[in-house]
Amino acid sequence: MEKVTLDAAFGSFDEHWSPRLAAELNGQAVKLAKLDGEFVWHHHDDADELFLVRSGRLRVEFRDDEDVTLEEGELLVVPAGVEHRPVADDGEVEVLLFEPTETKNTGNVESEETEEELERI
């Protein structure tokens, strides 16, 4: 059992779109990420993805649905198979992500943002 302090964890890195592994439980990962600008359009074939905004404002765009804007303290679950793109237009956003441990950050897309091995906080 290891305690994670979110202030210290988010303070330990500066890279955007490069999630860090904070914890694992029941086959799920709790990932921390800093976002700025636009990410790639993608989906996760077999996994739902939960976005919980800790600070800032995040817009999640959808190809087949209306965009959803998340403020601090709000969360959204994107169902498996739904194409989406996170966008941080208003500066840096800190998010917690909950998804199966093996889920790649870019889902079905391979790009320069794809993280194969996550650094652990």
Structure, briefly:
Helices cover 5% and strands 45% of the residues.
Layout of helices and strands:
Elements: H1 6-11, E1 20-25, E2 28-38, E3 49-55, E4 58-62, E5 68-70, E6 75-78, E7 84-100, E8 119-120
Parallel strand pairs: 1-8
Antiparallel strand pairs: 1-2, 2-7, 3-6, 3-7, 4-5, 4-7
What can you tell me about this protein's structure?
The protein is 5% helix and 45% strand. With 121 residues, it is mainly beta. The two termini are 14 Å apart. The model has no long low-confidence stretch (mean pLDDT 94).
| % residues in beta strands | over 45%
Helix count? 1
Major sheet, described briefly? 8 strands, mixed
Mean pLDDT: 94
**Could you name the ranges where pLDDT drops below 50 across 5 or more consecutive residues?**
none
Order of helices and strands: HEEEEEEEE
Task: Please count the beta strands (DSSP E, at least 2 residues each).
Answer: 8
Terminal CA distance reads 14 Å
Estimate the helix proportion, in percent: under 10%
Using only CA atoms, what is the Rg?
13 Å
Global structural class: mainly beta
Shape: globular
